[in-house]
Amino acid sequence: xxxxxIGMVLVLFIAVLVGFWQLQKKHIxxxxxxxxxxxSGVVFGAILxxxxxxxxxxxxxSIDWINIVGNGYVKFLQxxxxxxxxxxxxxxxxxxxxxxxxxxxxxxxxxxxxxxTAIAALIGILSVMVFNLDGAEFVQGTAETAxxxxxxxxxxxxxxxxxxxxxxxxxxxxxxxxxxxxxxxxTIAVVIFSAFVGVAYLGVHRKDPEAGEFFAKIIxxxxxxxxxxxxxxxxxxxxGIFALMTKALATSDxxxxxxxxxxxxASYAALxxxxxxxxxxxxxxKVNPIQYLKKTFTVLSFAFTSRSSAGALPxxxxxxxxxxxxxxxxxxxxxxxxxxxxxxxxxxxxxxxxAAIVAPTVGIDIFSPAYILTILAVVTISSxxxxxxxxxxxxxxxxxxxxxxxxVAIVGLVISVEPLIDMGxxxxxxxxxxxxxxxxxxxxxxxxxxILNDDLTAIKSDI
Length: 463
Hints:
Elements: H1 2-25, H2 30-52, H3 57-94, H4 102-130, H5 142-159, H6 163-169, H7 175-179, H8 186-207, H9 209-234, H10 237-250, H11 254-259, H12 261-284, H13 289-306, H14 313-324, H15 328-340, H16 344-358, H17 369-382, H18 392-403, H19 409-413, H20 418-443, H21 449-453
Helix pairs in contact: 1-2, 1-3, 2-10, 2-13, 3-8, 3-9, 3-10, 3-15, 4-12, 4-15, 4-16, 4-17, 4-20, 5-18, 8-9, 12-16, 12-20, 13-14, 13-20, 14-15, 14-20, 15-20, 16-17, 16-18, 16-20, 17-18
InterPro entries: Na-dicarboxylate_symporter, Na:dicarbo_symporter_sf
Keywords: Amino-acid transport, Membrane, Transmembrane, Transmembrane helix, Transport
GO molecular function, one term: symporter activity
């Protein structure tokens, strides 16, 4: 009977996938299809949970097959990270007229990303205090125990590295090895190498314009090809989202969810507070937040449901340039740097909250101003190199907790609510990178307010 039930579940799953294909054929708006997939996954996964239970053979057997779609989609997104980073950063250099704006753009983008990450970390710590989570203890089930064992192995890879040594680890030794994501710091290493290529291009173009133009055309062609591949992968988003949400709901331990409910609430309170600070920053640079939200709805909704900052990069850059009025160079720099540097959600709020929660358990006074400043400094520095696909937040947390000499078990104890919180974190990451692009474009006086204020320029993606 088990195989029969699994077959029935898979038939229903495939039927829903066919339904999404029909919606695509009818050219239903991309963001609409994504949210339908999100809701369908929640409902379908909850039904499996209620009928068969999280640990039943039917559920686990069905999820093994459903994972082909969900995990396959995630792997396709991971496949795109390195090519996207390389062509986007080098492409940004080819769009800079001379080098006079290069320093302003790079400094402004980095300062904004790191500055907002420090603020996000402070918000995370305050959220822990407001919700009285400092020193809180969470339920440890079978899944949490297994996760903690994995984390202990992962931490060994970074435990012996001081922060200066971690910074050195960002420097690429073998670019081709880093393209294969062979190290935990491969993402930032590719960013650094790509920046060197871009700077070299500017020098060659100045001395030999013909050679420079030839290289620029090659990069432009590569960029077009990579973006086409991205489009093909993005078309799989509704299917991937449906499979991922089905797995999340079908295999969730609701008792663990209930025990972690306050942590989820505190996390989203911090994420919302930081999002509102983003809106205040926009007001400070004379950008209407309401108009901004109208223009960024598609990319933010994609980031929320896909949980992938890297997957959102093409929509991120397109939204900045075609809907917000940001210049190409600022959009490419902010979008790409935002994949691996200064992610407000994954590298700011999350590790800071975990550090604030666990610190009192080892006798540290979290209310000490000196310790709060220590957390902020460590979180900000450690925000370099966080990959923009699922797992980056865990890496950031391991670095921060290790640097502060705090136990890492807390990371494993919240595994059951990770997917739920990660949606909000990813949205905040992407939003932060677009804020950086706007500020940079404003600083070099290339921001086109007419595009922002023209409602006809909103991205209505028909992917």
